[in-house]
Amino acid sequence: MLGVVLSGGLSSRMGTDKGLMKLEAKTWAQTALDKLTTLQLPVVISVNATQYETYPAVFPAEQLVKDNEGLDIHGPLAGVLSVHVQYPQEDLLVLACDMPLMDPVIIEQLIIAYRNNEEEAYVFTNGGEPEPLCAIYTAKALAATLQRYHNRELSKHSMKFMLEHLVVHFIPLLPGQEKFFRNFNAHAELNGL
User: Fold this and answer.
1) According to a count of CB atoms within 10 Å of the terminal CB, is the N or C end of the chain lower?
2) What's the rounded Cα separation, in Å, for the pair 183 and 102?
3) Any idea what the Cα angle at residue 40 is, between residues 38 and 44, rounded to 5°?
């Protein structure tokens, strides 16, 4: 399995690159990378074309995976499928960089479910809704999604739409765990961080 830090968003509402924002002297991307590394996983960082030029000043270039220009997809799905194209045999454990409160113990629950089951994806649910940006996607599931894209059957380029076409092992969040899935998109949301 390969860990993937999703950092390639446009950060338009935040007004600055969220992956390079700092929490306790570490960038959000580094914070996410460290959480995945503690789980003994090799980790890559999914970045967009602009970040691919700037991130080597902060991260080793070989750890970066640029959005695949051959895919006409945007958002997190572009990052996930771009990593899949580069590492087609790997199951991917993805974590968005804008979830700095995520606890590695929560991620370990995904890994336990993955080891004990045979589904195509492993995703938490929050109030019945999937949390697709801290999840595990098997290589089989990603290959099928990529094929749907090439067959022009991927009518929405969203992670939730992808999940509708997969066999998913859903894990309901326990009371109090919702805070770990809080993502930050604008400066006004940073109060109390």
Assistant:
1) C
2) 9
3) 90
* Residue 7, phi then psi, degrees to nearest 5: -130, 5
- Calpha distance 18→14 (Å, rounded): 7
In CATH, the architecture of 2-190 is Alpha-Beta Complex (3.90)
Q: Examine the pLDDT at 187 and tell me if it is beyond 50.
A: no
Q: Where are the domains of the chain?
A: 2-190
With beta carbons less than 8 A apart as the criterion, state whether 139 and 90 touch: yes
Burial (CB count within 10 angstroms: exposed 0-12, middle 13-18, buried 19+), residue 96? buried
pLDDT recorded at residue 14: 44
pLDDT greater at residue 30 or residue 92? 92
pLDDT of residue 171: 96
